[in-house]
Amino acid sequence: MVYDLVILGGGPAGYLAAERAGHAGLQVALVEERELGGVCLNEGCIPTKTLLYSAKLYDGVKNGDKYGVSSEKLAIDHAAVIKRKAKVVKSLVGGVKAQMKANKVAVFSARGVITGKSAEGYTVQAGGETLTGKRLLIATGSSPAVPPIPGLKEGLESGFVLTNREILELIEQPGRLCVIGGGVIGLELASYFCSIGTKVIVVEMLDHIAGENDQDLVKILKADLEKRGVEFHLSARVTAVEKNAVAYEQDGQNKRVEADKVLLSIGRRANTKDIGLESIGVYVERGAVVTDDHMRTNQPDVYAAGDVNGYSMLAHTAYREAEVAVNNILGKKDLMRYNAIPGVLYTNPELASVGETEATAAKKGLPFKTVQLPMQYSGRYQAENEGGRGIMKLIVNTDTQQVLGCQVLSNYSSEFIIAVGSYIELGLTLDVIKKIVFAHPTVSEIIREAVFQYE
């Protein structure tokens, strides 16, 4: 059968594109070898948030005396947390399947491989089926990066070393967990496991954690995690994975840390190998499919969205890229922009960011001024965070009076960072933003406060 659109990959980019295209009346085939929902729904965004919420509740009760709350025989059951995670994931995956059915999307549970192009369109082998699509969307996602560290491969095979996939299925709580990598995945899971009583040691090659996030906020977050028991070894290069330990080099010295389990979280790589891209000449650069701002590749009627293009490996970016691709397929002009993509580190507290930081604005030579406020300016924050040390930064273009970026270290920041993202996307000036009314009391009022603090 010839489909209007064949999609490789059932993650956020793939399943949302299938839903949108099917709803618009296109005949769509979606090929996914694992569960629908991809990494985000099955092994990333959603399952980690279920764990982190349980930890947040547990931390809240542990510190309840600050708020006049006490609890006897407090305990957390890691196995029960994992069981609830599985229930949440199953429900949401079921929802995706229902959407595919509702929008008449043909789902093929198989590995999809592009085999070439015929007069009718692009051909894809999906198990024992040969599919033909007038158009093709590549949305095969990404996988954990596995560097050539001695002993790492053997550690993964034995189960001593885990990726984000395996650790979210781990029923038994490890006594000691060594996290290789201090990025988003590593820090979120470090936050969870330290909350439930695991001794967590993070080994990071850089001299800082949390990637390109604002380092003033990161330093506070790091101090909070250390206070909760997380141990950090920075500027440390892992040299080997041993039987029950991780060896690393730091300050010219060879060191090692013992662990019951190791979490490998040093980044992700686009899934572009062995899917047949070379059979139709799709251009790949540094392991990722190259796309323009319409999400088109160098081949006619071939699009790519999500982690596979390497631009912004976030589920919400994938959603928007999928919409842009489908809109262009439908003949609706649409462009992908990356200047206001929010990013969140779901630790406790959360670190949310959108747009430029001081460092990136300075690097680009933009004229800017920063308004920095402690989160105590928010009454709601003070009411709910005894001793909280959160801060926020608002980056403003001094020439145009438009917001360039914002970084917030605070509970709820993941929920209101979109407000600033909207200001950036719409190009609103401070005079316009001052007229927007926020609900009171809310933590998000810190944004309004910062706008009025600008001089």
| Rg of Cα set | 23 Å
Instruction: Assign a percent range to the helix content.
Output: 25-40%
Average pLDDT over all residues: 97
* Contiguous runs where pLDDT drops below 50 for at least 5 residues: none
Under CATH at level 1, the class of the largest domain stands as: Alpha Beta
The span between the termini is 64 Å
> How can the largest sheet be summarized?
7 strands, mixed
Looking at CATH, the homologous superfamily of the largest domain is FAD/NAD(P)-binding domain
How would you summarize what this structure contains?
This protein is an alpha/beta fold and 455 residues long. It is built from 14 helices and 24 strands.
